[in-house]
Amino acid sequence: MAQTPIIVLKIGGSTAGNPAALASIAQDMASLSSQYSFVLAHGGSSQTNELCKRLGIAPKFYTSPAGIKSRATDAQIISLYAMACGGQANSQIVCALQAAGVNAIGLTGLDGRAVTARQKIITSVDESGKQKIIRDDYTGKIEKVNAELLQTLLSAGYTPVLAALAIGESNQPLNIDGDRLMAALASALHADMAISLTDVDGYYRNFPNDLVPSLTASELEAAMKNAGAGAASGGMKKKLMGCIEAINGGVREVIIGNGTVASPISSLLAGAGTHITKN
Amino acid sequence: MAQTPIIVLKIGGSTAGNPAALASIAQDMASLSSQYSFVLAHGGSSQTNELCKRLGIAPKFYTSPAGIKSRATDAQIISLYAMACGGQANSQIVCALQAAGVNAIGLTGLDGRAVTARQKIITSVDESGKQKIIRDDYTGKIEKVNAELLQTLLSAGYTPVLAALAIGESNQPLNIDGDRLMAALASALHADMAISLTDVDGYYRNFPNDLVPSLTASELEAAMKNAGAGAASGGMKKKLMGCIEAINGGVREVIIGNGTVASPISSLLAGAGTHITKN
To answer: Taking CB atoms and an 8 Å cutoff, what residues of chain B touch A152?
Structure first.
């Protein structure tokens, strides 16, 4: 049987903790399963925040010179992140997909070296603009996806569900960005499409006005450099960067749209959301 | 290439949290990798206990009419267990194996329905001997192992690492016993051998005296019924029951032995520990 086109989906950790949204995504994936093969990437920030809160640990964040906010991930936090993202969020998603009849298999990037990364040396900027170099942060830049493993699972009829956790150069777990994971997976698998499911209807020139139905990656890059894109939140900026990476990695089309509505994937495939293409 | 004989290993969650023991097991698996294919089963009770302690949640246990103590697993605990066993212990083991050059892939029984179970209705006996029926406990009795998935991974060169978490009849996560998981995996995979690694040298008639180097499953069953076996702790009783189940499931030989020594698997294959056979 020729393999159906691959769609790489990305959902946030908060969606994993939202049973109604998750059930709706799962049902939609099941209804589309004869037309597409899915690979799902997810984060686990909200689960990690919740666990830290219960343990009385205040989460720390770094801000890069470009203004991107990232979770600080020391040795204690990476261990909690492995539990919350790799254990809790991943199993919540797998159970919801299994309940909808999708034979999901949950993995982190550690498993079979599914996603390898290099530990980042982080430059952090404080509120006064002072820069500091951080070397003991377990955050990684994705280097390689084990496409062969994922293809083996897809060919055997499984739907891989990848938690945003990679294996580093010393076999250490590393926190990676879920949107960039989506881009790396879509590129490595030569996916037909990547879809980033979020809690808004797409990319807005001036949120909550001017939803952009379609644009090219270069138009998006240009927009991100000017004031209009400055209005996008840190989370939306990361999503947009993931979309651009996917397009640059050879993916034909990336869609950003609302994952909290009925039949979210079908709606986006039918034209809803923001559609990003190469040209 | 003809597949090498399969050995199913079982380690406790406490070994997963012991980096030196884990590294030694991982190195031994790497050194034996040309002779055997390994599948590893593990628990996560110590990680779950630790997490509960940090969260200020007192663990509850039930005692069965047969005197077997089991963790009480309500909705809150199963969620913590999924994190601690499926997230933390599993990723610790996978990283240690990867560091030794073993291409481990961590799974729970939820993943690809690797292990399905039926939720137990528990009869608990209190200290005064009074029985109580418990229906909201997320503990399962193993029903089926997806041997095809594990064979697919073994054939592709991966070493599956299974956390003791199964998927139930309503797609809910269920806590399962690690020793019984070892038995179910070994039976389903027609494994050549199962090895239960613990922190003592094997099964003793009268701990710490009279280590038994070898016995048959029926001798072991008989011994467990008389006073001598009554001296075995709850943990050892569960291990022995897992060994008997593996033998009854068609496994040629099961070994119980010390996982905290150098080259633990090679030592047991060379004769150390307690060797249990059918006849």
So the answer is: 152, 156
CA distance B7 to B269: 11
Contact B43, B164 (CB under 8 A): yes
Residue B210 exposure: Cα atoms within 13 Å on the Cβ side:
9
Q: Which residues touch B114 (CB under 8 Å, ≥6 apart)?
A: B107, B108, B145, B146, B149, B150, B160, B162
Chain B contact present for A99, CB below 8 A: yes
The shortest C-alpha distance from B254 to chain A (Å) reads 27
Q: What is the pLDDT of residues A199-225, one digit of tens each?
A: 999 999 988 889 999 999 999 999 888
Measured in whole angstroms, the distance separating CA A251 from the mean position of its chain's CA atoms is 15
pLDDT in tens, B10-32: 998 788 889 999 999 999 999 99
- CATH of the domain spanning B6-277: 3.40.1160.10
CA distance A66 to chain B (A): 32
Query: Angle A238-A241-A247 (CA atoms, 0-180°, nearest 5)?
Result: 145
Q: At which residue do the structure tokens 């070493």 appear?
A: B159
pLDDT tens per residue, range B200-228? 999 999 888 899 999 999 999 998 887 55
A277 within 8 A of A252, measured Cβ to Cβ: yes
Reference A171, options B41, B153, B13, B101; nearest CA is: B101
